[in-house]
């Protein structure tokens, strides 16, 4: 998992795309973390370790050493192993589907995705990125259990999908973006598909101007569901 966070992050895009001024308002507050975030980060590390071993990209010794460190965390549980195992199986099954379409299909785990073509200073990490003839698929592991996350018109996944396309478009002719949410603790596993043309139109004509507004501190404060994790929520006039 990356240690550096983007000023405009895909994970908070539902907020800065709606409330562009929130970015400048949040800049006065330090980044903080929670036990839920730490647990989620550990689950991603465990899932990554499982998948890389299943793909033969790390040795049994490397797998065991990484697993030992993960199990030493206060946030680890046997339940996490079960949930991350289900995530691994879903990723590998999706990869097999892609290989059935084209034997040269590619899978990248925890791939850095650059979104600067659509939003300056925006980047993120694709949990699992699968590329094959005709489409690119982004699979996002959500370990939280508070709220079910939908992939339908999900700004974070759409940005990841565009980033995955930009990073891998030299491999195949791609005209579709497949976006999957895997949220095992609430039995939420859904996939949404959009045309590449549709997402590019959204990226250039909606995301780009909103991102520029957010970085320049323009726009109006706008309260809504996106306020939930805003660092400036306690001092926001619109939210009050």
Task: Describe the protein's topology.
Elements: H1 13-16, H2 22-26, H3 35-54, H4 60-71, H5 78-101, E1 106-114, E2 123-132, E3 134-141, H6 155-168, E4 174-183, E5 188-195, H7 196-216
Parallel strand pairs: 3-4
Antiparallel strand pairs: 1-2, 2-3, 4-5
Helix pairs in contact: 3-4, 3-5, 6-7
Helix fraction bin: 40-55%
In DSSP terms (H or I, runs of 4 or more residues), the helix count works out at 7
Beta-strand content bin: 15-25%
Which whole number gives the mean pLDDT? 91
Alpha-beta classification: alpha+beta
For the CA atoms, what is the radius of gyration? Answer: 18 Å
Shape: globular
How many angstroms separate the termini?
35 Å
What is the H/E order? HHHHHEEEHEEH
Widest sheet, order of strands: 1-2-3-4-5
Major beta sheet, specifics?
5 strands, mixed
Low-confidence stretches: none
Number of strands: 5
């Amino acid at each position: 998992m990356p240690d550096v966070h983007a000023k405009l992050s895909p994970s908070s895009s539902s907020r800065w795309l709606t409330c562009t001024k929130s970015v400048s308002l949040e800049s006065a507050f330090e980044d903080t973390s929670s036990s839920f975030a730490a647990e989620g980060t550990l689950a991603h590390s465990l899932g990554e370790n499982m998948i890389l071993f299943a793909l033969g990209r790390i040795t049994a010794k490397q797998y065991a050493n990484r697993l030992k460190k993960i199990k030493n965390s206060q946030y680890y549980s046997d339940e996490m192993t079960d949930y991350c195992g289900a995530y691994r199986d879903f990723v590998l099954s999706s990869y097999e589907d892609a290989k059935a379409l084209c034997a040269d299909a590619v899978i990248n785990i925890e791939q850095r995705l650059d979104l600067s073509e659509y939003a300056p200073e925006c980047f993120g990490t694709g949990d699992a990125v699968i590329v094959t003839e005709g489409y690119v698929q982004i699979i996002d592991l959500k370990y939280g259990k508070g709220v079910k996350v939908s992939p339908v018109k999900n700004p974070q996944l759409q940005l990841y999908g565009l980033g995955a396309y930009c990073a891998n478009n030299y491999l195949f002719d791609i005209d579709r973006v497949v976006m999957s949410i895997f949220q095992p603790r609430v039995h939420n596993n859904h996939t949404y598909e959009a045309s590449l043309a549709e997402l590019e139109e959204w990226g250039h004509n909606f995301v780009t101007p909103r991102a520029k507004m957010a970085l320049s501190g323009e726009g109006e404060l706008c309260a809504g569901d996106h306020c939930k994790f805003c660092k400036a929520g306690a001092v926001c006039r619109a939210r009050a």
